[in-house]
Write a structure and sequence with these properties.
Elements lengths: L2 H8 L8 E9 L4 E8 L1 H12 L4 E11 L17 E12 L4 E10 L5 H16 L12 E4 L9 H14 L17 E9 L9 E6 L5 E6 L11 E12 L2 E11 L2
Antiparallel strand pairs: 1-2, 2-6, 3-4, 4-5, 7-8, 7-10, 8-9, 10-11
């Protein structure tokens, strides 16, 4: 694969199902939020696996710097946080076939407010991936005001999916499809990954990343009651229903059969 082809494939837009939205501002008694699109670490990992292979990319994390946050506008300087905030650099390297060597690109991020160390590592990884071109186009999609529910969660995710598709068209882009599933038999889904999400009474529950028969990425929730659901397998006869929760709409995988 040439460097030009590598950059093109890494830079391809993600399917709407892989894109998430972060609320950055609130208005109208918190009934509306200004949201921006982003992709999580798992989507980036899947892209790297698909394009260069799981054995041809790697990361390393390096301590960066510390700083003490300045007091906010309405914060008492004497009571402000004085604990230094750490940060880290992430070096994301990919093996280049033309040069017969690994090429590394580096970016960093501070620890986050929630799950500080884990969040900081994830953010630095995502920033390093952007330097490689992964998800860089998302910065060209304008922020959008959208309705929120009483929990300050996005009320109508489908509207944002439509907005995302519209913006891709304006940019002259189209969402990428998984090259490994373009010839999948009709009705067969590929399992690209699982993220355990145990809950009371369902210790094997998980979020599952699927690729639909048409090559579209789809994230579903599974209670994990049936065996054989693992990364890399294919399933058929999938019964997927849309559910509603306090966090918004989601899809649940209720039934399936192993595919030949």
């Amino acid at each position: 694969m040439t460097g030009e082809e590598l950059h093109r494939r890494l830079s391809e837009p993600f399917a709407a199902a892989d894109v998430e939205w972060r609320v950055t501002k609130l208005r109208n008694q918190n009934s509306e939020g200004l949201v921006v699109p982003f992709i999580d670490s798992r989507a980036i990992q899947n892209r790297l696996d698909d394009v260069v292979g799981p054995f041809f990319w790697r990361t390393r994390f390096i301590p960066w710097h510390q700083y003490v946050p300045k007091p906010g506008k309405y914060e008492d300087p004497n009571e402000a946080q004085k604990t230094p905030v750490s940060s880290q650099l992430c070096g994301l390297s990919i093996y280049n076939e033309e040069r017969k060597e690994r090429v590394e690109k580096v970016d960093g991020a501070e620890n986050t407010d929630i799950e500080a160390i884990k969040g900081g590592i994830s953010d630095s990884f995502k920033r390093a991936a952007v330097i490689w071109g992964v998800g860089r186009y998302l910065y060209e999609i304008p922020a959008r005001w959208t309705s929120l529910d009483k929990y300050k969660q996005i009320a109508h995710p489908a509207e944002l999916n439509a907005y995302y598709t519209e913006q891709l068209q304006k940019l002259g882009l189209c969402a990428a499809q998984d090259p490994n599933t373009s010839v999948a038999p009709s009705g067969v889904y590929a399992v690209r990954g699982l993220k355990p999400a145990p809950m009371q009474g369902y210790p094997a529950a998980a979020w599952v990343d699927l690729v639909t028969p048409t090559g579209r990425a789809l994230k579903v929730f599974s209670l994990g009651t049936k065996p054989g659901l693992a990364s890399g397998v294919r399933i058929q006869g999938a019964k997927i229903v849309q559910r509603s929760s306090a966090s918004g709409m989601y899809y649940e995988l209720q039934d399936y059969q192993p595919a030949a």
